[in-house]
Amino acid sequence: MTNDRDWVGLLLLAAAVLATGIVYLWLVPRSVSAGEDTLAIRYLVVGWIPYVLAWYLLGRRYTSPEALPNMRTADAGLALVLVSLLLSLGLDAWGFTPEQVPGAHALQAIAIFVGLALLGWGLGRRSSALAAG
């Protein structure tokens, strides 16, 4: 039975990685090259779902906490995402658009993806402990 669960977990992980790759390697560049920036932003945000799911599945599969872990990793990830979004929106509202200051917005984008990875990993680790206990 665990062998079947391993295959299902691997298939879900492969599907999440594939969906993330399709969004960020095909849909977003195609939208940007076509000049449809609002569509590209929508694809970026929709792409967060399979990205977080992939990290969740990695955290669930490759961690085996002996005790119930706290939620600090997921909390820190969520805080990093929210603060980075607010900083990026604040920069844009103050007139520092991504075209004028791409480095600042790139730093915010990296922080958002790191935060999403931490969120998914923390939730996966916690659910792995709950399933084992």
Q: Provide mean pLDDT, rounded.
A: 91
**Percent in strands:** under 5%
How many individual domains? 2
Largest sheet: none
What's the helical proportion of residues? over 70%
Radius of gyration: 17 Å
Helical run tally: 5
Structural class: mainly alpha
Helix and strand element order: HHHHH
Shape: flat
Count of strand segments: 0
- Regions with little confidence, pLDDT below 50 for 5+ residues: none
CA-CA gap between termini: 18 Å
Transmembrane segments: 7-27, 39-58, 78-97, 103-123
Keywords: Membrane, Transmembrane, Transmembrane helix
Which terms would index this structure?
133 residues, mainly alpha, 2 domains, 5 helices, 83% helix, flat
3D architecture notes:
The protein is an all-alpha fold and 133 residues long. It folds into 2 domains: 1-62; 67-132. Helices cover 83% and strands 0% of the residues. The chain is built from 5 helices and no strands. Helix 1 runs antiparallel to helix 2 and helix 4 runs antiparallel to helix 5 (102-132). The longest helix has 32 residues, at 2-33. The radius of gyration is 17 Å and the shape is flat. The mean pLDDT is 91. The chain crosses the membrane at residues 7-27, 39-58, 78-97, 103-123. Keywords: Membrane, Transmembrane, Transmembrane helix.
